[in-house]
Amino acid sequence: MLKTVIEIRDLWFSFNGQPVLSDVHLDIHEKDFLAIIGPNGGGKTTLLKLILGLLKPHQGTLRVFGKPATKMAHRMGYVPQYTGLNTSFPISVFDVVMMGRRRPGLFWTRRDSQNKRIVVDALTKMGMWAHRHRRMAELSGGQRQRVFIARALATEPDILILDEPTASIDTQGQTEFYALLKEINTNITIVLVSHDLMVISSHVEAVACVNRTLHYHNEAEVTEEMIDMCQCPVELVAHGLPHRVLKPH
Amino acid sequence: MLEALQFEFMRQALFAGLLTSIICGIIGTLVVVNRIVFLSGGIAHAAYGGIGLAVFCGWPFLPATIAFALFAAVIMAAVTLKVRHRADTVIGVLWAFGMAVGIILLDLTPGYNVDFMSYLFGSILAVPSGDLWVMSAVAAVIIIVLVVRYEDFLAMSYDAEFARLRGVPVTALYYILIATVAVAVVLIIRVVGLILVIALLTIPPYIAEKYTRALWQMMALAVALSILFTLIGLWLSYAFNLTTGACIILVAACGFLLSQVIGLIKNRQVRLKNDDPVEPKPDSIKEPI
Fold it and tell me: pTM of the full predicted structure?
């Protein structure tokens, strides 16, 4: 029986008086590959930020590895949704990924062989090693996204949390990306938000639909109940090639 | 020009300019990349209230003004963190309030106030040597703090959210940054004047940004540019008997325009060279090493 890495109970969260998440329960186990889907504004990114400890729930508990989520950020790698922030900032690709090696409590991250090896590894996995000395300002949106994914990988996380990681990547890139995630998934739990309901890889093992409340489904398919709740039609990509698979209805 | 160096006041002015450039280059870089230019402007103008207070109560200039500026700065910092969407309105209010308080207090002070104009426009040629010591100390502290906590400031400036996840004390650092801006701004007011503080804080880093690929490089280049503008500005003011602060800023503004024009020309050259208008195919994820 795999242990529970993330445990969410009775979670409520509101923003400016408006409820964003109501009565959410969720268990995520070690080495799960969970996709969180749902309509815009439904609370997916908020849920991620609560898991990361960037936000505090108003009610309920959120435990990561048994401890409160706000204390466990160092065991999670995070890929944010937006790549377009601070694009003219003077920084190289290598230095961005190196930020993932920063440990709390140390003033300087030593550029020793171990840290360098991890950064090289992460950059190579994401196909950005050749660009390591380029300024972030010179990259395309898709390239920047890959750098941020490399940065999350460089943190050597136990849980990888990705918010729309393939938003700027083309279909070919997406297929390869999901294959890479599957490889990573052998050791790391993955929680992935996809606002594009259209694409859920067969590699994904479970799906949660968030629209103020959460509906969990233990298979990589979406039931009619979820379709109703999400209020939009869903297509599923069942294999690496685009196949359209809809349940009979 | 060289014969001017035999004058004590000229050497002091050069030294003041050098210290100002170091402080402005470093702090200005952080102001520009953290996008707190308006906030810094707010602090500078609110600090004028401190100047008025110092003159009216007969308190020593630097401690009184710095204290007032810190007070205004902390309020503004708190507002930008807690009520982000209306932060610039509150900054605008404090900006005006501080300025008005300062002016009224100066009005109420009996006697002829030479200080009024010199604080608005600066008087690099009349910086007391006591001030120079303070500026040197502040510059030294800023450099030390930045060297020690460079990575933290870099992380906070680039991606505060991710920095928070990696244990960087983002909120504390933000307050420290704002406090440092307050102190720096008060010191610089004496040199180039309130009206021009923001220009000196922002123009050199803004030029430096696109030529550098690391934050410390941007700081270094901003310092170098600032020194260059100060030297040329000092020479112009000496040669043509003009207000020094304004000369420095005019040179800086010309530098800014020049760098924009160079940038436009380079862009045009790149576009003309590129015959292929189609976007290059994005790299496949797996690349051979």
Answer: 0.86
